[in-house]
Amino acid sequence: MKSQLIRPYLTEDLNGLTPLHLHQREIINCLNLFSEKKVRYLQEDTRITSKLEKVNKTFVKLINDLSNKGITLDVLESFTSQEKKVIKRIAEGLQTKEIATDLFISDHTVQTHRKNIYKKMNCNNVSDVVKISLLLEVL
């Protein structure tokens, strides 16, 4: 199958052709363009548009869910780099001992990071940690 192309007649930033197999940063840029309604034309294949709209809706739902629980951008920005690493590994399903081994820190240090993460989030819910992990990947 030929690589299909999106022809964005957008802004000076994205003149030219963009392959359908976009990298993560390009997907985020496209989502921003959709939300800002700067896209005026896409080539005949609307599958990419549909997929981007679904991704956008999912992220909006995720952000709204966290916001309703009081987890704002300020909370996300307050996590230290080590806490972000722990969040990522919790989201991957690793246990405390595995996280400690992976990060070359003690079990006690991982427990302290977990405690601080949950305190900043004001909850003890692993599903919220997974949601935050997804957002941290794209921010």
TrEMBL record:
Question: Which InterPro entries does the record associate with it?
Answer: Sig_transdc_resp-reg_C-effctor, Tscrpt_reg_LuxR_C, WH-like_DNA-bd_sf
Under SMART domains, the record lists: HTH_LUXR
Q: Which GO terms describe its molecular function?
A: DNA binding
Keywords of this entry: DNA-binding, Transcription, Transcription regulation
Q: PROSITE patterns in the record, alphabetically?
A: HTH_LUXR_1 (PS00622), HTH_LUXR_2 (PS50043)
Domain of life of the source: Bacteria
GO BP, one example?
A: regulation of DNA-templated transcription
Question: Transcription: is it a keyword of this entry?
Answer: yes
| Keyword Cell wall biogenesis/degradation appears in the UniProt entry | no
Q: How far does the signal peptide extend, from start to end residue?
A: none
Q: List each copy of the HTH luxR-type domain by range.
A: 72-137
Tell me the protein's name: Regulatory protein, luxR family
Q: Which organism is it from?
A: Ulvibacter litoralis
